[in-house]
Structure to design on (92 residues):
């Protein structure tokens, strides 16, 4: 650790003060607003798709690998609603 004299500290503080006053002069008293985060609006169609996908995943989660494959085939052939019905019927 090096020893620093009080005069050196005072010189550095005066430099910082000069820079701070110059910075304050550049902004002309204008304080920038805090950046706000824009809320992303999700279309209702996408929300419905995600909700349906979550129901599908929840329905096939407890199935065995064989039944899960059957549910995936039903989903490809007949759609998500049919696959969810099938998975729920197997689950109980």
């Amino acid at each position: 650790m090096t020893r620093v004299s009080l005069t050196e500290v005072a010189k550095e503080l005066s430099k910082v003060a000069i820079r701070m006053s110059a910075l304050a002069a550049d902004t002309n008293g204008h304080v920038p607003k805090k950046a706000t985060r824009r809320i992303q609006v999700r279309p209702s169609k996408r929300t419905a798709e995600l909700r349906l996908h979550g129901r599908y995943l929840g329905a096939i989660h407890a199935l065995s690998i064989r039944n899960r494959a059957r549910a995936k085939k039903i989903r490809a052939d007949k759609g998500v609603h049919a696959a969810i019905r099938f998975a729920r019927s197997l689950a109980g």
